[in-house]
Design a protein that fits this description.
The structure holds two protein chains of two kinds. Chain A is built from no helices and seven strands. Chain A is mainly beta. Classes of the chains: A mainly beta, B mainly beta.
Chain lengths: ~90, ~130
C-alpha cells in the first residue's frame, strides 16, 4: 500500500530550437517524508510531433521534483506542462 | 470518523458492507462489519495496487528490459500502469526512451533505450492502480 505524497505541475516555455531545461515542480499534498516512487509526464498542445519532446526525472525531494525536458523546434514556441505524482510507501 | 446519513448496509453472507461518508475528508469509504460485529473501516486509499522501482545499467546504443517487482496491496491484476525513467542530471532527454511492455499482478516490465554514447544507469519508477 502507499500514500499519495504529493502532486503538481509546472509550465515551461520553449522558444525556438530544441533546448534542454530542468523544470522544477513544487508538490502539493501530504508531503511527509520522502517519496518512494515518482512519475512524470508532459502535456502540450495538439499537433506537436511527439518526437520533439522528451523528459526524464532527475531528482526529487520531499517538496519538489526536477524533471529534465527537451523540447522545441526551429521557429516554433510552445508551453510544456510537466506533471508529477509522488507516492510514499505505507509501512 | 463521522459517518453521514447516507449509509446503506446490504448484507453479503454474514458480512455487512456499507459505504460511509466521512465528513472530515469529504470522501466515501468502504466499511465492513466482521462476524464479531466489529466495524472495520477500509483504508480510504483503497483500492490501490502496487508501486516499485528498479535500476539497471544499460550500454550505449542498447535496449534492455527492466523488471520492476511491485510492493503493495497486490490483489488482482492492475488496471492502469504508469512508468517513468530517472537518470543522472545534465543528459539530453532525447537520447532516452521507455515504454511499458507488460505487467502482471506482481511485476511490470519496462523496455528502455539508451541512445547516448555512454553506459547509463536507468531507474524505473512504476505505479500500478486497480479500478474500484
Amino acid at each position: 500500500m502507499f500514500y499519495e505524497h504529493g502532486y503538481g505541475y509546472a509550465d515551461q516555455d520553449f522558444i525556438g530550437g530544441p533546448s534542454n531545461i530542468n523544470v522544477t515542480v513544487t508538490l502539493s499534498g501530504d508531503l511527509t517524508g520522502v517519496p518512494d516512487v515518482v512519475v512524470a509526464c508532459c502535456s502540450y498542445s495538439a499537433s506537436v510531433n511527439p518526437n520533439l519532446i522528451d523528459w526524464y526525472i532527475v531528482s526529487y525531494t520531499q517538496t519538489q521534483a526536477v524533471v529534465r525536458v527537451r523540447a522545441g523546434a526551429v521557429g516554433l514556441t510552445w508551453t510544456v506542462r510537466v506533471h508529477v505524482i509522488a507516492l510514499r510507501a505505507k509501512t | 470518523m463521522a459517518i453521514g446519513p447516507e449509509v446503506q448496509v446490504p448484507l453479503v453472507g454474514r458480512v455487512a458492507l456499507a459505504a460511509g461518508y466521512n465528513e472530515t475528508d469529504g470522501k466515501y469509504h468502504l466499511l465492513k462489519v466482521d462476524d464479531s460485529g466489529n466495524l472495520l473501516v477500509k483504508d480510504p486509499d483503497t483500492p490501490q495496487h502496487g508501486y516499485g522501482t528498479a535500476s539497471a545499467a544499460v550500454d550505449a546504443n542498447a535496449t534492455a528490459n527492466i523488471t520492476v517487482t511491485l510492493s503493495g496491496n497486490l490483489t488482482g491484476a492492475p488496471d492502469e500502469v504508469v512508468a517513468t525513467i530517472q537518470l543522472a542530471a545534465g543528459l539530453n532527454p532525447a537520447n532516452f526512451h521507455w515504454y511499458v511492455v507488460s505487467y502482471t499482478q506482481t511485476q511490470v516490465v519496462v523496455r528502455v533505450r539508451n541512445d547516448s554514447a555512454s553506459q547509463r544507469t536507468f531507474t524505473v519508477h512504476v505505479i500500478a492502480l486497480r479500478a474500484v
